[in-house]
Write a structure and sequence with these properties.
Keywords: Heme, Iron, Membrane, Metal-binding, Oxidoreductase, Transmembrane, Transmembrane helix. Belongs to the cytochrome P450 family. The structure is a single chain. This protein is mainly alpha-helical. It has 14 helices and two strands, in the order ααββαααααααααααα. It has a two-stranded antiparallel sheet. Helix 8 runs antiparallel to helix 9, helix 9 packs antiparallel against helix 14 and helix 10 packs across helix 12.
């Protein structure tokens, strides 16, 4: 009797998994790996490790496991061994005492597609580029002087929000969250990008087609969700083509890239148009100037400008 297509597919996947597990076990038997003195933790399953114990809210799942196995425990997420510290002493040990040993981040799908190919502060590997970025962030991009220079933008957007709320005072209900969201997006857009690229109600001129509030909110919400989610394709690389979340990350990365390309092209056009009279008025202008600095230890490429811009905007959202 012929099996239905779905059953045939599952049978092939299971057979492949069993075959790989058998090969891996034989390889490990002939080439034993060095044994590490790992902290206590749940016994991992073949292939998936402890992924079966991680729910839709990974931080809560890890917290529940730490109650059983202690503040320093070991997990295996697919192919990767992980040590989890969940106490003040463990955090101090990892983040302060031995920070250089733990400072790197693994190369995950999010870093490639929403971190502009690992070029922002969040995903860049530790090294000269990362140290330079941190220095520029402290002294130039998010310096107290730079933040003070945009104080009037924040005041103007708060006043505009209050006027809008006042104008709707006669309405049956006012959704305060919507007004707060628009005020925040407008302030971020003006400080980082130079103008309101997030346009409500259609708008006019070249900014109108950049992004609607709904589109931009979707991108931000999608980013925060996918950044905090575990992707099976990252943990078990040969299953990445089956992971729907990785497809979502790639789609989000393309949306961010189109948006940022438009922003950079408009800023570069203004720099060419104004010539020697050009003066930086927002953080993208500042990043473009920094990228032209021949004295930088590590050059900032276009992906780096996009990554810094996106990281800057996400920092303000946080």
């Amino acid at each position: 009797m012929d099996l239905p297509p779905a059953a045939s597919f599952v049978a092939v996947v299971l057979a492949t998994v069993l075959f790989l597990v058998t090969i891996l076990r034989r390889c490990n038997h002939h080439h034993p790996k060095r044994k590490h003195n790992l902290p206590p933790g749940p016994r991992p399953w073949p292939v998936i490790g402890n992924l079966n114990l991680i729910g839709t809210l990974p931080h809560r799942s890890v917290h529940e496991l730490s109650k059983r196995y202690g503040p320093l425990m070991s997990l295996r997420l697919g192919s990767f061994p992980v040590v989890v510290g969940s106490s003040v002493d463990a955090a101090r040990f990892i983040l302060k005492t031995h920070d250089l040993a733990f400072i790197d981040r693994p190369r995950m799908t999010s870093g490639r597609y929403t971190g502009c190919n690992y070029s922002d502060m969040l995903w860049a590997p530790y090294g000269a580029y990362w140290r330079q970025a941190r220095k520029l962030w402290k002294t130039e991009i998010l310096s107290p002087r730079q933040l003070r220079s945009h104080e009037h933008v924040r005041d103007e957007e708060v006043r505009a929000m209050l006027r809008d709320i006042y104008d709707q005072a006669a309405a049956p209900a006012v959704v305060l969250l919507d007004h707060l969201l628009m005020a925040n997006l407008n302030a971020i857009s003006r400080m980082v990008l130079g103008k309101k690229y997030v346009v409500d109600g259609g708008g006019e001129g070249p900014a109108a087609a950049a992004a609607t509030p709904e589109e931009f909110k979707w991108m931000i919400d999608e980013f925060f969700f996918l950044s905090g989610a575990l992707n099976v394709g990252d943990m078990i690389s040969w299953l990445s083509w089956l992971d729907p979340q990785i497809k979502r990350i790639k789609r989000l990365g393309k949306r961010f890239d189109r948006f940022l390309e438009r922003v950079l092209e408009e800023h570069e056009e203004r720099r060419r148009r104004e010539g020697d009279g050009f003066a930086a008025v927002d953080m993208v202008d500042l990043l473009l100037e920094l990228a032209d600095d021949p004295n930088l230890e590590v050059p900032i490429q276009r992906d780096g400008i996009k990554g810094f811009t996106l990281f800057d905007a996400k920092t303000y959202v946080d």
